[in-house]
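Teaching note: in complex prediction, the entire set of molecules is handled at once rather than each chain in isolation. The prompt given to students was simply: 'Predict the structure of this complex.' The entities are:
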Amino acid sequence: MPDAVAVEARSVTKQFGSGQESVRALDDVSVTIRENEFFTLLGPSGCGKTTLLRLIAGFELPTAGEILLGGEPVEHLPPYERPVNTVFQNYALFPHMTVLQNIAFGLEMRKVAKGEIDSTVQEMLGLVKMSGLGGRRPAQLSGGQQQRVALARALANHPKVLLLDEPLSALDLKLRQGMRTELKNLQKKTGITFVFVTHDQEEALTMSDRIAVMSQGKIQQLGVPLEIYEQPVNRFVADFIGDTNFVSATIDGQAGSFVRCRSAAGLEFLVTPVAGAATGATVTLAVRPEKITPKAGGNAAKVEQTVYVGTDTTYDVRLPDNTRLNLRVPNALSGQAHFAVGDSIGIEVPPGAARMLQD
Amino acid sequence: MTVALTASRLATVQADLERRRIRTRWGLVLPAMIVIGVFGIVPLLIILVYSFLVAGGYGGVEWKFTTDAYVSFLFEKDIFDGTFKFVSDYLEIFWRSIWLALLTTVACVVLGFPTAYFMATRPASQRNYWVFLITLPFWTNLLIRTYAIMLIIRDEGLVNDGLRGLGLIDKPVHLLYTNFAIIVGLLYSFLPFMVLPLYSSLEKLDFRLVEAGFDLYATRRSVLWRIIVPLAKPGIIAGCLLVFIPALGAYITPLILGGGGELMIGNLIALQFGTSRNWPFGSALALILMAAVMSALIIYVRTSTERGRAAHG
Amino acid sequence: MVEQTIARPLAVDAERRPRGPARHALDLKRQPGFGTIAMLCLVMLYAPIVILVIFSFNTSPSVTRWQNFSLQWFVKVLENREIHDAALNSLTISIVATIVSTIIATLAALATTRTRPWPGQTAAYMVINLPLMVPEIITAVATLSFFALLASTAQINLGIGNLILAHSVFCIPFAYMPIRARLEDMDLTLEQAAADLYATPWQAFKHVTLPLLTPGVSSGAALAFIVSIDDFTITQMVAGPGQTTLPLYIWGQLHKTGVTPEVNAISTILLVVSILFVTLSFLIGRKRK
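The expected output is the structure of the full assembly:
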């Protein structure tokens, strides 16, 4: 049974300013977010992800289109009447209130009974592992602690949807990684729909049930992390997620369920075709560095630079037609030949490893 | 050997430069120190001394030490039996001045806070003009402005004319020469003094906190009282001080709008140096006023440093 | 799982919600009624002044009933001998006091800004701002006592110089503020660049600091001038016979003849002068950011 829909955006457009100076932050965006889902909006700054979040929260109104929560349109509802809560990027903790008072705030505003407020607040403190620190003020907390309080403050209201606006961006690496796991577990535990905004693709890939990759106000691709990584639909998504090599190739002919493509330098790829791919057409292929295997004794390419990255070694190689490729080879496997600058190597790409892009 | 020499020579050079720097700074600031010192501070010291002298027959002082001036603030000597009687007249004037200054301060907050908030929430390009508009009246002549108010609220003035014209009253309402008139005058003079520090404070408010409040189901009212006002507290206190202290020592406003009957401390002091010809008493009153002003300032500084310390744990 | 001890989230019941494209008032910064109060305050602040000005153009001597537009009172003012004398006094005192206080304030600002703390800096800063802290009536009687003492013991009477000195004292902090603000905005590296290009400290000051400081100095001078020309309390106490200034004249007239359109007229002129100078000061201060 498919999960019910928690949030839906229908053809939403958001324009700021007018006339010559107008900026279209969102351009005819439609997306459906399911209940109990950890949904991520991923993209570079200015792509519209935060704008979409703010539209769901109610801080902005769409220029066109509709936002629905639980199937009901919500344009007429101000933020304090929507069953959503936000974890702000800068946490926005009230500096003049203690941790306890911050967390209790939403409950107080909704006139929950005092006894219930107290027990909920304590529960939340325990949930984010901040028990005993209720009397502190935000200024006395570290960045990581402030973030947990912001989380607790939002969760205390048991919202249907929790919106998180780049909540981890201000934390240092180790803390960030720890929080990723915690957030994921929290979401599973509470069952609340999380809508998570980030520009960090590693975060998106590790935490999300589904990802919407955005750029310039449009959703470029929507899918589960595996899809997004392995099957990028266009150049932007392929480039934004992970490292990618782009190779121009001509379609040669069929080979079973694949088509054969040949690059100018003679490299052959077996790829799954996209709709409308005809023999003879020139297409762009995307190949991940870790999917290319170098072979000793070949002369498909020459090694120009090697970089030792601890777990792997990356090789920058140049093909006879001056195409450059980046290869990534794990160091741990013994039996792997190590190549040096100047070596000539062969290139092997397994069938289906390269992706044909729609562009 | 050479190393030690160089190090010590460097130290001397640095000390020299520092001495020269301090000397230059002092030299530049000296004219201001002298002018304000001689013509500002010395006069204050003089009236301090005067407050302990005997009043001269035709104004001025006689150089004999006495504490009469301070005593006569609270007590009057019965000329027949030499006993001291507690006299509350001057104390009343003092209390009334404090009371009027307090009411003015409260009125300024009630009117000034919404105004400052409104200004702070205008688009950035507009704000400077608002600040200009609010401060402009401050720079015009206080005498003239107060006189203008007098024109409006007196018996033959616009307010009464208007009320008569609308048929609401038959006889003029006596607005002039009352405490009400003084408060209106003081409010008029000091409103910008409340608005500006409040505006300064509110402009720096992080409105994302307001958004967070809304996100947590607060209504506009709750956001105002639970979030905005507490965060604007330093501005409110600064504004209150900026209004209360000058209001306490007001002179022109009660002079014009209070008539002879409603005296504030400022008028009382001026009187001693005018027709009452009691300079020592006037000096004593002035110093008591100074003491009140200083206490208010000290309380403010004390509480603001305490608050500063508390906020940073 | 988070227990269902928490109140159910807000349900948006169908009846409460208006149909159709009604949208909520979006301006989250808006507080109801504040705009009205702000406008009210503005009106309140300007109404008396505006009314005064309007009635100074009234033909009838009444200051409440409008008759006809006329410049007769201004003409009378311009022909009035006493007003001429008062205006002369006012201008003399204020111009000299402005010059003196602006120079002193500029030096003081240079001393107290853009620097590592130096011993005595806080004391200096407090002294400079002292005139602002002391209620004007106290300054007035203290200054009176000072000059009276000087006259009676040392036989020193500077005539109008007394007033000039008294004015200079309270003008200094008013001139100081804009100059200091301008100085703090200025880039320290400019003088360092000048020094790098072989300018002596004096040359750097003359060719770099001073020109850039001019808006601040002008702004400060304008403020000092206004404060001086508008002063009443201190002037009233310290002035001797024949040293009437415009505000004193107005006060004298109020006492003698009460409220008259002539008084309105001269008040209007003073108001216009103040407003001009403040606007000037504001505009200069804003230019060249």
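Point out the following to students. The two ends of chain A are 35 Å apart (CA to CA). Chain A is about 25% helix and 35% strand.
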